[in-house]
């Protein structure tokens, strides 16, 4: 390792367009700073439209970056790069190629071969279990956590509550936050799903007598959001995602809402909602792989078509099964599926018996402790790469 690294390790986060990926990296960076005193620099990268094509024959390159983003990547090179999501992989490998010594940590499931990374931090939704089982504990570069990393804890929620309380204080309880993801691979948000979501959320809000908070994300299709807004009861507060990320109330919603409805394709948002200890309902987004895709016009868009082609020719590790995480959370009574049974949300949002409330708190606390343990274990494994 370089002399510089022995004194103060230089760590870069390669942040891309996906908030969920960035949130996981920032959570790990925050833990590294708190536990080991490391300084972490974020590199915010923008990509060209053809970036996906570079992964057909993956080679270290900056060709997928805009000119402005390329200019931010220059010596002195980092001792370690943390990345998440497909877009940043080839950039991270290019940095390693320039420095000759940079260690690479990837969160999620890399498109490049696993051995290209010093550590891959993943979750059960990805098909890396076989690779993990084929490695010994001493040689394994795969770390399996139960859920994606995040920063939702008592301190973060208290700070978010302080920032947003004045803007949300007049909204009636129970406050129900609708957290909307968007198109992702085989998961396509259609107008029919918007109608179904509006119907069930309306019933939840009207029967509870509360208020609705709505936030979209970068992946939310404009047409889906417009259709949803046409049919939803008037939200007490809403936010439409913008590229500048200005005045985003997402963390305020996590802190001040009494319950959540989350589109189930977003494992990161589901994990963060669960971490609050409040009731969470999943709204199912069916996978195009589970139906005759050719019968739906939505299946012919660029993203679902490119995803279908990639999955047909790609190695098994490219597969994603979010049902594993959903089933785990449901079995632990940490989430419920949103349906039209009005009794379920009246019971969850209303008063519970002391025994039921104690049981729910115990389950949530156990899950929070497990996720905190995952974060600390991950930080220790990353720090070990710098020793």
How would you characterize this protein structure?
This protein has 387 residues and is α/β, with parallel strands linked by helices. The chain folds into 2 domains: 3-147 and 373-384, Rossmann fold, CATH 3.40.50.2000; 154-350, Rossmann fold (3-Layer(aba) Sandwich). The chain is 42% helix and 14% strand. The strands form 2 sheets. The chain has a 6-stranded parallel sheet, with helices on both faces. The chain has a 6-stranded parallel sheet with strand order 9-8-7-10-11-12, sandwiched between helices. The longest helix is centred in the C-terminal third of the chain and has 31 residues, at 354-384.
Summarize the structure.
The protein is an alpha/beta fold and 387 residues long. It folds into two domains: 3-147 and 373-384, Glycogen Phosphorylase B (Rossmann fold, 3-Layer(aba) Sandwich), CATH 3.40.50; 154-350, Rossmann fold (3-Layer(aba) Sandwich), CATH 3.40.50.
Task: Give the SSE layout.
Elements: H1 3-7, E1 10-15, H2 19-36, E2 39-44, H3 67-71, E3 80-84, H4 89-99, E4 103-107, E5 119-122, H5 129-133, E6 142-144, H6 154-168, E7 175-179, H7 191-208, E8 211-215, H8 222-231, E9 237-239, H9 250-256, E10 259-263, H10 267-275, E11 280-283, H11 302-313, H12 323-331, E12 336-337, H13 342-349, H14 354-384
Parallel strand pairs: 1-2, 1-3, 3-4, 4-5, 5-6, 7-8, 7-10, 8-9, 10-11, 11-12
């Amino acid at each position: 390792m370089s002399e510089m690294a022995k004194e103060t390790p230089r760590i870069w986060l390669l942040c891309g367009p996906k908030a969920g990926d960035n949130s996981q990296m920032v959570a790990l960076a925050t833990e590294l700073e708190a536990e080991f005193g490391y300084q972490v620099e974020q590199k915010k990268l923008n990509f060209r439209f053809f970036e996906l094509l570079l992964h057909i024959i993956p080679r270290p390159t900056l060709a997928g970056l805009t000119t402005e983003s390329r200019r931010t990547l220059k010596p002195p090179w980092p001792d370690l790069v943390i990345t998440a999501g497909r877009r940043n992989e080839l950039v991270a490998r290019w940095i390693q190629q320039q420095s000759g010594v940079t260690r690479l940590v990837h969160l999620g499931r890399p498109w490049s071969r696993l051995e290209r990374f010093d550590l891959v931090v993943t979750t059960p939704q990805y098909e890396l279990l076989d690779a993990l089982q084929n490695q010994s504990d001493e040689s394994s570069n795969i770390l399996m956590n139960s859920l994606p990393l995040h920063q939702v804890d008592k301190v973060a929620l208290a700070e978010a509550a302080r920032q947003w309380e004045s803007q949300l204080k007049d909204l009636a309880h129970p406050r129900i936050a609708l957290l909307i993801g968007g198109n992702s691979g085989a998961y396509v948000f259609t107008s029919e799903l918007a109608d179904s979501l509006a119907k069930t959320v309306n019933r939840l809000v009207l029967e509870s007598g509360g208020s609705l908070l709505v936030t979209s994300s970068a992946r939310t299709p404009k047409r889906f959001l417009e259709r949803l807004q046409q049919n939803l009861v008037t939200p007490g507060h809403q936010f439409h995602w913008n590229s500048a990320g200005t005045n985003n109330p997402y963390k305020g919603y996590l802190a001040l809402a009494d319950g959540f409805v989350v589109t189930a394709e977003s494992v990161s948002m589901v994990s963060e909602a669960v971490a609050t200890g409040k009731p969470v309902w999943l709204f199912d987004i069916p996978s195009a792989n589970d139906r005759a895709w050719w019968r739906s016009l939505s299946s012919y868009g660029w993203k679902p078509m490119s995803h279908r082609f990639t999955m047909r020719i790609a190695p098994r590790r490219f597969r994603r099964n979010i049902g594993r995480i959903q089933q785990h959370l449901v079995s632990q009574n940490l989430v419920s599926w949103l349906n039209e049974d009005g009794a379920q949300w009246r019971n969850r949002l209303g008063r519970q018996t002391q025994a039921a409330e104690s049981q729910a708190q115990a389950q949530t606390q156990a899950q929070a402790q497990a996720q905190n343990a995952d974060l600390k274990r991950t930080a220790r494994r990353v720090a070990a790469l710098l020793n």
